[in-house]
Batch of 4 targets.
Target 1
Amino acid sequence: MTALSRVLMGTILGAGALALSAGGASADIVCKGNICWHTQEVYEYPPDAHVIIHPDGWHWGRGEHYVWREHEGPGYWDGDEWVED
């Protein structure tokens, strides 16, 4: 095996390992009204929270107006207040 073959094989194996490890990463976009935030975990929101969970690639449509407010940990935005869940 030539040096070039070893480098190519290493690159292919490294890319495959990276692709497999990235498959486990998950994120969602959660919105309540026009306020949205990212979450890295799957949370059970109470029914009275009235949140909508979107996949990570979601974006709002033309003419819709949303704002981003990030926060760590379980909970949800209720107006300007973060409600711990």
Target 2
Amino acid sequence: MSEETLLEFPCEFPIKVMGETREGFADAIVEVVRMHAPGFDATRVEMRPSSTGKYLSLTCTITATSKPQLDDLYRALTAHPMVKVVL
């Protein structure tokens, strides 16, 4: 059961998550990421506010082990109520 992908696993994979700047946003996202990538190092999260400060972008780089893992993580992040966009 091999799914088509151009990635070779395991690999370092950055995921960008954007939402409104509010207390607890980064912690909530780190919690979701850790559920799907238990070895995720939260000290590697890159945070960038928008020019107006209304939105916050987080880049979380995980060690991806499979396409289903990435699919599940993307589904969990996009379903989170604080998240506006996942890239």
Target 3
Amino acid sequence: MNLVDQVPSTRGRLGGFLASAAVVWVGAYWLNEYLWTRLFVDLFGMGATDRLTETLVFFCYDTIKIALLLTGIIFVVTVLRSFMSVERTRRLLGGRREGLGNVMAAGLGVVTPFCSCSAVPAFIGFVSAGVPIGVTLSFLIASPLANEIAIGLLFSLFGWQIAALYVLAAVTIAIVAGWVLGRLHVERWVEPFVLETTLKGEPIDPAAGLSFTQRVQLGLEEVATILRRIWPYLLIGIGLGAIIHGWVPTDFFTTYANSDNPLGVVVAVLLGVPLYSNAAGVMPLVEVFYAKGLAMGTVLAFMMSVVALSLPEMILLRRVLKPQLLITFAAVVAAGIITVGYLFNIVLGPGGT
């Protein structure tokens, strides 16, 4: 039996189902840290300050915490954004000029479903609908960079101020990078078949006419789909974070990427570009790096480089972008991320939140 079959069909039963799920979620989140500390220290008799204990507690605690956060965030945001489909976004951006189009594309990218696996069809669909290349790229940058998982996890870990600054920075990078790429007239570096593609008729808008029960079903299906797709990277990211948290000396990070090093942000971005992960997988590293003393701007620049310039997305985009545009795209976005990292360090200070 799948998730759709388990959703109550009547409004009253659906309300009870959601209320019960919320109570279970809050209880599990509240008990999480207490449970693992008691398990390893009290039951197994391990030393509370031992490196192995700290590593195991961090891994188990963060795995459950991030899984719970992902479940709640993905479900709520999927229900909300079921009112805004990619096709509706395409129609809104069709025919828009650069400038205003870049601003609209970046804003819509924050609230529209998108992942690296849909980069190619989204790019083809937008361009064939008459959306300028630069405007399309603004959307493709903003959507994975300022996705709901990144925003929700940053909010839960560092507060609304950092989450808001991150969204502002991500949208700004998307607007400026898209506008710059548009000014460079990069159409000549798009694979010819993309520009020759024309839309045949209007596709059905999957977000139109859905009942609330169907939107809940979509939310549950999205939770299952995303968790199934990212869990290996999530565990790898948390495992690396646990090892770094328990075993890597603090001065390792403060030596190579500290706020006193003028190239600290550049080092963080260069480390993040080839590292394939997503917001959920990289968040444990973000948390640990900040705890080890890295400035918030440096940490967020690292996160942005991982999320916005992942290797699989670059490989997928190569199907529609020639190497010249792919390299230019990565260089412009990386330059924007580095600039934002330095600005964050100036505004927030070495340890500001």
Target 4
Amino acid sequence: MVEKPTVKTKCPNFSSGPCAKRPGWTVDVLKNALVGRSHRSKEGKERLREVSTRMKKILGLPEDYRIGIVAGSDTGAVELAMWTMLGPKPVDVFGFESFSKGWIKDITEQLKLPNVNKYTADYGKLPDLSKADPKHDIVFTLNGTTSGVKVPNLDWIKDDREGIVICDATSGIFAMDLDYKKLDAITFSWQKVLGGEAAHGVIILSPRGVKRIEENEPKVTWPLPKIFRLNAEGKLKPGELEYSTINTPSMLCVEDAIDALKWAESIGGLRGMISRTQENLKVMEEWVSKSDWIDFLAESKETRSTTSVCFKIKAEWFVKLSDEEKAKAAKKITGLLEKEGVAYDINSYAKAPIGIRIWCGATIEKSDLEILTKWLDWAYETVKAEYVK
């Protein structure tokens, strides 16, 4: 029997969204938030310009790429891109977990596009990305938040492509290298790697992406919600993304995002964020390599996510249980950790295979993950004792 650990994690928040706040965060960082003021005031626009400028600088975006805040978290940003950009060409869409497969459903059942090629894979795997046709538009997810599987590189996207590429990057951006020249619309939410607040989405547009919206939006045959209409008078004017948002953003959330970006700058910017994430994954890899009961859900190390790390329980006694019994046993393991105040919200996503999911993004401390692995072993052995006599 594994002895119960005595040292607890300093921060027990390992949810995959909203994710843990940056180390040292307190509500005091919001004291200068522009609450009670219009986001269209001079000061409000300055705050919005600041958050956009800091994001662009840290990410190292090309000078001619546009970035700004939109409504509805990452989901709203992806939908905005699809509803305003798709239509002129056939679409190749790749799905390998809950959200990416949801984009397939929206493209085929909501937009009802006539020429769609669907490429899918089960949890733990990637679809065949080589099927992407450079003459078509492409929609894909960079990192499967619910599957722990990432797209390892963008070599499969042609530089001389004719179509545009929409990338849902929400649990990967700020933690993984991206060749921006391969992408025309990149979406994410502050609530993931930055540990910001939820509800707001961010969209990055290449010049090709801007051109597609300007040319395509007036031609769409489906109803277009107002919060999706980026361009005014047929043009996406300077500032329309960066500091003149379609909807009203929360200035509290903007202040919080600025704080997160300042923290990112203090640890070395993008390289520092990526390094922390990779070091966190190493802790989990070392733990798994010594374990006889847990394994990664991702079947390949090359496609293993460094942020939303998903696990399956491989112990023989567990595998023999019914799905209902597996779900109960897994929840008992995570429930013990929650009761002890060691780890919150680490159950697998509801539609994903039964197991455990631990956020390992840059706002998580490596030392807390090292402590958590010991508690995981204890909780597992405690629950195992109920089933194996």
